[in-house]
Amino acid sequence: MSIGIYLVFIICFIVITGIRIVQQYQTGVVFQLGKYSRTLKPGLNLIIPLVETAMIIDMRVMTIDIPKQLAITKDNVPVTINGVVYFQVIDAQSAVIKVQNYLYAVSQYAQGALRDVVGGISFDDLLSERKKIGDDIEVIIQKQAANWGLNVSAIKILDVDVPKELKEMMSRQASAEREKRATITKAEGDRLASVNLAAAAKIMAESPGAMQLRTLQTIDGLGPSASNTVILGVPIDILESFRGLTAKLTEKN
């Protein structure tokens, strides 16, 4: 009787210690006496205690930070840059067997790839083409990550920091560029104004009454204020006409 109880106890112990519950987003890799045996699917699974061991792997998309890295651009500008890597395990067996710690491996590989890519581009390209830089780093990492059973889905560049002196130079350059555009715009406006004035002067020269009409419009625009004093300069040709008319009237009388 006692032997049966011990046997039942041993069986219950084996069953309880051999139960492995794998979540929907996980995969279990089973080793039997140190050798790969099988892969556990999500749900309730059993392994043989003391003979088999199981490593549970998260199959969801994971993110790891690329710490701030000091890099030198192609045109010898020192920058401090960081980013983030998005990846997931697609082959749990390879992720466990082929690399000791795939999280640490991806982080270190991403840091090296980041410095290599930044070192091959100019500072202006670094500021304007962040997406392309991330894509280039992704291609480099993916070549190695595929051997580890990983898939790198995206690399994002977060911050690009430059020395204080360079920031001040960039600020002065931007200010000078804005002043340059303002000067060009003003010069273009002056040119258009002079063209319009020349055209107006030509029209007035061709139409004898145009200047008088413009003069009357100007006077009318002064308003009825008593403080306005208007002095009209009568053209000489009009005075000559009045003189000729006065002389004819005198002769007739």
Description:
It contains 8 helices and 8 strands. The radius of gyration is 44 Å and the shape is rod-shaped. Helix 3 (102-118) crosses helix 5 and helix 6 crosses helix 7 (208-221). Among the domains are: 2-58, no CATH class; 62-166, Band 7 domain (Tetrahydropterin Synthase, Chain A, 2-Layer Sandwich), CATH 3.30.479. With 253 residues, it is of the alpha+beta class. It is 54% helix and 25% strand. The protein has a 3-stranded antiparallel beta sheet. It has a 3-stranded antiparallel beta sheet with strand order 6-7-8.
CATH architecture of the domain at 62-166: 2-Layer Sandwich
Bin the strand percentage: 15-25%
- At the fourth level of CATH, the homologous superfamily of the domain at 62-166 is Band 7 domain
Which bin fits the share of residues in helices?
A: 40-55%
What is the CA-atom radius of gyration, in angstroms?
Answer: 44 Å
Assigned CATH class of the domain at 62-166: Alpha Beta
Indicate the structural class. alpha+beta
* Annotated CATH topology of the domain at 62-166: Tetrahydropterin Synthase, Chain A
Mean pLDDT: 79
Strand neighbour order, sheet with most strands: 3-2-5
Model regions low in confidence, pLDDT < 50 over at least 5 residues: none
| Number of helical segments with 4 or more residues | 8
Span between N and C termini? 167 Å
